[in-house]
Write a structure and sequence with these properties.
9 helices
Length: about 270
């Protein structure tokens, strides 16, 4: 299964609009609010994706930004133009760099990396990840249940050069885990990318390889886990079919867990529910 996924419970919905090296964005509906996690699409793609999941730009209550790289925040100026009072959550270093490079002045809501906070009944935990940005984070969203339903935790964890103990602990606590599976080692070797760029991607503050993602999934207990989403695949140095083959073992070990691989070459995939 590839690209867009949608997971729904009572008063809860989570739509991954896309996640690849060319752009990342998802929609979370919980606690009576609609928020985006990253907004790395140009406006034509973003507006089309939002329309497909029934979200009007003006109905978005907040955006949570992981870091300042363009594939995670390039759509912010266009979205702010259509939703001027939009609240944007980021840590101080990320807000500073986005404000400087994109010349935007949203209603910044700055948080401390590593400190959980409440957003309309949702507990948000921004945790540090190792990546070559100012102060990059992953997010865990603990979404309240309704009518006795249990809390659901969505964990968004891309752009990490290696798996830290903190990242592993966050993966183990997730119900829905969006995890980076950025590159295939052989494809990266054979690519025409310059040697310094290859070194940067493979570095401890670069990106997570397919095999590293597989190692993490094999090592965690993750008793709550119901969905695994492999994302942020490189268009040049990875293929969904390669990741799918690696996930055969994970599916065998976790038959009750749904595994979805997001194809970076597709932008209008089938929905999961």
């Amino acid at each position: 299964m590839t690209s867009r996924a949608s997971f729904s419970w009572v008063s809860f919905a989570f739509h991954v609009l896309g996640t690849s090296s060319s752009g990342n964005c998802s929609v979370l509906r919980a606690g009576g609010k609609t928020v985006l996690i990253d907004v790395g699409f140009a406006w034509p793609r973003l507006s089309a994706a939002l329309a497909k999941v029934g979200v009007e730009p003006r109905s978005i209550d907040a955006v949570f930004i992981t870091h300042e790289h363009s594939d995670h925040c390039s759509g912010l100026p266009a979205l702010l133009g259509r939703n001027p009072g939009l609240k944007v959550y980021a840590n101080a270093e990320t807000a500073l760099r986005i404000g400087y490079t994109q010349k935007v002045s949203p209603v910044w809501k700055k948080f401390q990396t590593g400190g959980a906070f409440d957003y309309n009944g949702i507990t948000v935990t921004p945790f540090p990840i190792p990546h070559d940005a100012a102060d990059p984070v992953g997010f865990a969203f603990d979404c309240p249940g309704v009518g006795g339903a249990s809390t659901r935790r969505v964990t968004w964890m891309t752009d990490l050069g290696h798996v830290t103990p903190v990242a592993k602990a966050q993966a183990e606590a997730a119900d829905i885990l969006v995890l980076e599976s950025n590159y295939d080692d052989e494809m990266l070797d054979l690519s025409k990318r310059p040697a310094p760029l290859k070194q940067r991607i493979r570095g401890r503050h670069g990106h997570l390889s397919n095999l590293a993602a597989l190692d993490l999934l094999r090592s965690i207990k993750a008793e709550r886990l119901s969905h695994i989403c492999l994302g942020h695949l490189s268009k040049e140095c990875n293929r969904a079919t390669i990741v799918e083959q690696l996930m055969v073992e994970v599916r065998a070990d976790r038959p009750d867990v749904r595994v979805t691989v997001f194809d970076p070459l597709e932008e209008s995939p089938a929905e999961l529910s």
